[in-house]
Structures are given as structure tokens and as C-alpha cells.
Amino acid sequence: MITPTSESPGAGTVRLVDHLAGELARAGVTHMFGVGGANIEDLYDAVHRGGTVRCVVAKHEFSAVTMADGYARTTNRLGVVAATSGGGAMNLVPGLAEASASRVPVLALVGQPPTGQTGHGAFQDSSGKGGSFDIAEVFAPVSRFCAWVEDADALMELLPRAMAAAQADPRGPAVLLLPKDVQQAQIRLPGHDRTPTPTPTRSPDVVTTTPIPTPDVPTTTPDVPTMTPTPNRPTTTPMPAPSAPRLDNSALTAVSDILRGADRVLVVAGEGVAAADARAELAELAGSLGAWVAVTPDAKDVFDNRDPRFAGVAGVMGHANVEECLWRAEVCLLVGTRLPLLARAGLDRALAATDVVCLGPEPPFVPGTALGGNLRDVLRAVTGRLPPRARACPQHAGPVPTPMPDRVSRGPGRTVPYAQAIAAVEAALPQRAHVFVDAGNAGASAVHLLPAPRHGRFVVAVGMGGMGYTFGAGIGAALATGQRTYVLAGDGAFFMHGTEVHTAVEYAAPVTFVVFNNNAHAMCALREEFLQQGNRRDDLFGRTDIAAAVAAAFPRLDVTGADDAAQLRTALLRANASGGPAFVALDCDPKEIPPFLPFQSFATATDRTDHPGSKENSDERGIVHVG
């Protein structure tokens, strides 16, 4: 909806931001996340006036990006975040980096000082003029498209280009930099002459609009930031859904021949399956091949975890059965994953002995035969080349949890082992819920032990692996879908961005926050013990009663401090029956070893007389080193 403002100088005109708000609504955007400020307040005002897109104000710009990220991952729509200049803009970078690495479509609308002030000491100037740094160069490495909107005409071209670039493979963030005076510029309503009314006169050294060059042929004006896409990235013709390129027939034939000739196939499916909404196509292909199906740590929800074909999670948080199936397989079929280190750690030797085929828009990190293109189209094409019958997969052990040693201390205070806590979560988890799992020991345990809900997302942000991602992302998902959303995080993640609980309370988001409090950065503490001879205790902290603190801060919030798994389950079931947020904290032990492959080689050594961190023992046990 576009509503003329009282400031409109003539009939049939609106501010540029009113048009922008209307375009977001027409694109299907339902929520805009962010933190306000002087140089973005006009956009917030326009969205409020429009009444179609809902503004959600976060406590920190990083969390605002993760809200847009969670929104995008659960809806398969474009996530939108809006922030002001200066520190607000800089706070977007870590969240955009995660969206870039994880291929999540996010549009960042970033306010800037008025163009007439740039280069003249403007507050929060980042135009690259007058000794300021160039904010476009900061956003370029974490975006698919980045451009200054230097006048009202430019937005008509740049907005659809930015939206298309964010949603084209490889998906990721797009950034539009919006000077305050440009946001306020008047334009004609649709159906009228679109020639904008004159904008304020600019000083001679202020940025002017420059044509967008063809890809890989940059055109710049000396000392003037240009309105160009991110270097070395293809531009995209504006369209609601970019058409997929024709599949390479020779590659399709090669892949189909390999798969038809294999009796035992292990499929490793990744996040790309969820992004392409290709779960049904994946299941059909697996049935045609009689294949086992494993998933990467960030893709537990792309295949039914209770299906007899499900082999488990691959990589550092995974199950031994995946490696066993890989050794038995004649072909390893990667679907929607490039198989990064977190998904292939511990599998390199078996992969080297197996033919690898990769389906998806990007080439794999391991040698193999690749078929690129839109994943749904690729899966349908390959399945169409196979015999039209479903086959049972060979017998296998399934995702049996890895046994870990009991190192839980029995000192003062009660701690809940991760396995018991995750079992309580599983018992309460609705099958239409979304699950967002944060970094650390609790996260590794959840990935390893908790089956994904049948009809919800199971999201792990391994692109950057940043702590605290889940608090914003879970809120964004819950507000976008209205579905109960679980956030599973440690105390380290909570202390980074857990104050977004305030946002959940303010917007009555149906989020259940579960904080596993081991009073430590425990994964770091275990690395110090195992890899650095235990000389430091920097990551072990004094006890904090998180539940009591949160209850005091938010009297309206349902808060539980759970002493055992039974209390945890009861609190979760109560939260499921409510319509708003809930918070549960429980104490865990920092010395408990999670099901994390780099630690498993030490697990059997903790009771030995030789120190587990010594170099010769580490080499003998073949330790997997992962950051």
C-alpha cells in the first residue's frame, strides 16, 4: 500500500520510501526487521504508514539480520533488514556474513547521511569522501549485490535488481545504501509520470548516479563511489523468479549412467535441499536408487529422520554409521551440498575410495562428477533417467548415538547430562515446530541426538558458526510462520545476544528458549584441556543463575529453572500450550564431552596416565582438527 504523506508537495506524489515500502509488500515481504536511527527513520515511518509490512525492532543489528535470516529459511521468502548508518550499519556485517556463507536471501536497507553532507564531516559519514571509509567496500565481500541509491530514479532500477540478486543462485545478501535526502525525495504515484520532483542541490563533489557496467568490466569515476554491483558477481535481470538455465545434457547422461550402474549408493543431502524446497524430489530419488540417506549438520530436516533409509548426520557432529555406509557404497551422491569440512570430517579416506557425484548449483569441495542447475529440476531430471520403481536400501545400523564417557562431576549442585536434556526436548517437541540450534557443546549434542521435526525446520548456522545467532533467528521464524519455535543455546550464546528475549516478549513471539548453562565457553575449555595441556582456565566462569535473572527482568515471561529432565519436559509442554514466549534454563557440566568428532579421539584417553594432549598420542589417534 502507498499512502501519500502530509508532506507531499503535490497531488499524486509520495516519498521514495513510501514507494519502497509498497514494493516490499508487493514482493510478498510480511516483516521488516531492524533497529531504527535518524538516517533510516523515514523508511520505518513509511512501512508503518503502509500497514502491510510489519516492523520488528530488535535490540541489536546482528540479531535483526538473523531475524531476517530465520524468516527467510522458514518461509523461502526474501528476508529484509533495515538499519541506520555508522555503528548500526557496521553491526550488520557479521549477520550478513552468515547469510552469505549459508546462501540465505536477505535484503539490507541501510540509511546514510544526506548526500549534500558527505565528505564535509557528516556524522557517521562512510561515503569514502573527505577521509571517511567507503561502506560499500565493507559490504561488498558479504553481499551478492551492493549499490548506492543516489536519486529516486535509481531505486526503480536497483530495487528489483537487488531482490533478484539475493534470490538467484548462489543466494545471499543484497545491500542498498539509502541517503536520507533520497529517501525523502518525492516521486509520482504509479500510473502517473514517474519523473521525480527535484531533489536538493548537491555540492560538486557529491556522488552522482553512474551507469551499472556489465559484469566483470568495472567502470569507475576516480575518487567517486559508484553504484555498481559487488565486483566479480553477475548481475541479474529483475524478475519474480529467475528462470533456470538448461541442464547440461552430457553431464546429465554421465551422472545418470553412474547411478544406474551402482547397487549401493549413499546420498549426503545438504541445506540446498531445503532452500530449493526439494524434499519430495530427494525422497523420490532415494527410493529409485535404493539409497541410504545421510544429511549434513545444517540439514537434518531435509529427510525424514525416522525413515529406514536415514543413515544419520555426516561430519563432526555425526554418526559412525555414515562412514560405515560410505565404505560400503559404490557411489556417494551429494545433493544440495558442497560437502564442506564440518560435513566431511572423518570421511576423507572413504570418499577417496568412492565415486562422488554432486547435484546442485555449485561445485563440490571434493573431486567428483557434477551436474549443476536448479536443484529441483536436476533431481527430477536424474530420477526420470532411472528405472521407475522404488527399491529398499541395504541393511544398516542407522543413526546410533556415539557413546561418550561419563565425565559429569558429582560435586555440589545438580547438572543435567546432555543426553537426558535432549531426550526431554524430543519428548516435548511438536512435529510442526522449528528448531534453531546454536554453537557449542549443547549444539553438537542437539545435532547428534535430536531428530528433526517432521514438518518444521532444523536450522544450524554453520556458515560462520557465530554464537548467539539463534536468538534473533528463532524470533524471526516464529513471527513469520506463527509456529512454535525452539531455540537451543548455551550460556555463552545467551550472554552474547540473549537479550533479544526482550523482543520476543514485546511481540509475543511463540518461541521457547532453552539455555544449557555450563557456566563456561565449554567447547573452548575442552580444547584447552585436550590440545593445550590444560594450562588455562579462561573459559570457565563462576556460576550464574540465568533463570532467576531472566525472570526478574521479564515478569510477564514464563521462566523455569529446571533441576532435572522431568522439569525441563514439563516446562516445555506448558510452553507448547501457550501462545507466547517461554524461557527454560538448566545447569550442565562443562567437563561433559559432547558427541563432537575432534573430541572423540580423546574420550577413551581421559583415564590414561599419559596426557591426552601430548603430540605423539594425538598423532597416533588421528585427531580431527576443526575450528
What would your notes on this structure say?
With 627 residues, the protein is an alpha/beta fold. Helix content is 35%, strand content 15%. It has 25 helices and 20 strands. The strands form four sheets. A six-stranded parallel beta sheet has the order 3-2-4-5-7-6, with helices on both faces. Strand 15, helix 17 (441-449) and strand 16 (458-460) form a beta-alpha-beta unit. Helix 1 (16-26) packs across helix 2 and helix 11 (279-289) runs parallel beside helix 15 (375-384). The longest helix is centred in the N-terminal third of the chain and has 16 residues, at 152-167. Mean pLDDT is 86; it is low at 1-8, 192-241 and 606-621.
Structure, briefly:
It contains 25 helices and 20 strands. The longest helix is centred in the first third of the chain and has 16 residues, at 152-167.
Q: Notable features of this structure?
A:
627 residues; alpha/beta; six-stranded parallel sheet; 15% strand; disordered N terminus
